[in-house]
Amino acid sequence: MRRLLLAAAMLGTVSAAHAADMPDLPILRGGITDGLSKTSHNWDGFYVGGNAGYTTDASDFSQSVVGLTNFIFRDSVLQQPTSTWSLMNKTNTQGVNFGGFIGRNWQWYDAILSLEGTYTYFNNLATSTSGSNSLMIVNPAGETRPPGITNNYGVTLTGTAAAQVKDMITLRGRMGWDGGGFMPYMFAGAAVGRMDVSRTVTSNVTLRQDSTVTDAFGNVITVIGATNPVPAQSQTQSQHRTNTFAVGWTAGLGLEYCIWDGLFARVEYEYVRFSPVMNTQVTLNNARLGLGYKF
Known about the structure:
It holds the Pfam family OMP_b-brl. The protein is mainly β.
């Protein structure tokens, strides 16, 4: 047994001496893990590109003719009650878009910040609607009437409205992450759209004055009066603006993929909401595919 232990000790001493003489291989120092680490991509620099995609347009015409009805019924007891009417509905349309972008990336380690300008042209992104509403307005607030008189205003409004978004520019700030050959990003910024907007309303107003009297026997009797037109408030008003500008804001998400050297592809979703133009609110949802080059 003593001989076996002595032989094992001698073998261990020889093995340790042999290991000390071996070359210092990187694999023995954990160097193989460097090959498994992520290779960072250089996204820093100026870039430019073009894109094309699909747009859905949601236009809210519910309050489009309010400005016109306020003008028709100005200085009238009918202005306040008619200003709350929702004469028309929201409508939707779809179309294709084309455009380009130019920007600058600044990269710190895996974080990427960008400032980007875009231009988008919309192909026939137009929508329109019409509607009407009728209501009997009895003794409207603010009216002075003789005792026993009830004024019954019959008001009918008929309107049409249309909007076409022609093109748009945006200035967007982006925040991305270096995923090697991929860069997911999100963005937000300001948008300015160019559009044609029109609206028309026709009002038809009648007045019936009913009187309440008491006869000789103390009975209260209501006498229905004749219905007469009110010409001053029965009219048509129209308004049309061509190439008017609407400001708004934009936000969305995207993903870029480096195809080769500075050439990259991108896919993104963009939401745009413009401020109302002639009481017409337009909202866009854009989906795009693009190709660009980073210098």
